[in-house]
Amino acid sequence: MIWPAILGSAAATYLVRSLPFVVGFRGHLPGAASRYLEALPVAIIAALVGPAVVAPAGALTRGAEPLAAALVVAVVAWRRSLLAGVIVGVVAVALLRII
Amino acid sequence: MSVLVFAGASQFAMVQLFSDKAPTAIVVASVLFINLRHLLMATSLRAELRRLPIGGRLFAAFFLTDESFAMATGHFRRGGRSLAYYLTFAISLYVLWNLATLAGIVIGSAIGDPRRLGVDFAITATFTGIVVLAIRRRADAVIALVAALIAGSLALAGASTVAVITAGALAPLIAVFVRR
Fold it and tell me: Taking CB atoms and an 8 Å limit, are B134 and A45 in contact across chains?
C-alpha cells in the first residue's frame, strides 16, 4: 500500500504548487486584494517560523528557541546580514539547549 | 519518495502514517493538507513567474518549497528581478535533498540527534532573518508577529498541519484594513 500513497502524495504536492501558475486572472486587482497579496509572503514565512520557535518538535519550548530567535532578529536588524544571523542563531540555540 | 514527493514535512508525516498502517486516502489527504500552504506561496510568486512560458512555470512549480519560496521572496524584495536565482536555488535544493536522502539511507543510523548541535535551528534562523530583512513598514512587523503567533499557537494546540496555511492566510488581512 506504500506506492499508491507515494504516487497520490506526489500528485497532491504538485497540484498545490502548480495550480496558481496555471489558472490565471488578467487585468488589475482591486486595492484591498493587492495589499493582501503584498503582505502574503512575509506572513507565510513568519508563519513557518512560529511553530519552530514556540513548539519545536511539537512540544512547548523550554525557552532556548524564542531567545535564539530574538537574537537572530537583533543581529539581522543591526548587521543587515542573513549569514551573521543564522550563525549566531545556531550557536545560541545549541548553547541554550545545554543549559 | 524524496524524488517524487519532495516535501520535507509531508515526507516525515508519511513515514509516521506508514508505520501506523494508515490507509492510502488518509496519507494523501494529510499530505494535501500539509502542503496547502504552497497554494499561498505560488499565488504570491505568480506575478514574478508570469514572465515564464506555461511550460517553464509548470517546471518551476515542481521545485517550489518553503525554502526556495523564502529565498526567492527575499531576492525579489531586495529588488532582484532574475528568475535564475529562484531556479538555481530550488533545483540545487532538490538535488541536495535527494543526495542527503541517499546518504541518510546509507549511513543514517550512525549519526546521533542533530538537535544536539542546533543544526535544526538553521532553517528557522534563516526564515527569521528573511522576515526581518523584508520588513519595510510597521504594519509588516505587526503582520509577521501575528502570523508567527497564530501559527505557533495552532501548532501547540495540536493543529500543526493547518498552522501555516491558517496563519499565512489570516495575518495579511491586517494589511487590507491598514491605510498607508
Answer: yes
Residue A92: closest C-alpha in chain B: B118
Write out chain A residues lying below 8 Å of B57, CB-based: 18, 21-22
Closest CA to A65 of B145, B160, B115, B74: B115
By CA distance, what is B155's nearest residue in A?
Answer: A51
pLDDT digits (tens, 9 = 90+) for B48-71: 888 888 888 888 888 888 888 888
Q: Answer whether A21 sits within 8 Å of B172, measured CB to CB.
A: no
For chain A, domain boundaries: 2-98
DSSP string, A33-76: HHHHHHHHHHHHHHHHHHHHHHSGGGS---SHHHHHHHHHHHHH
Q: Is this structure's pTM higher than 0.80? A: no
What ipTM was predicted for this assembly?
A: 0.85
Contact between A22 and B168 using a beta-carbon 8 Å cutoff: no
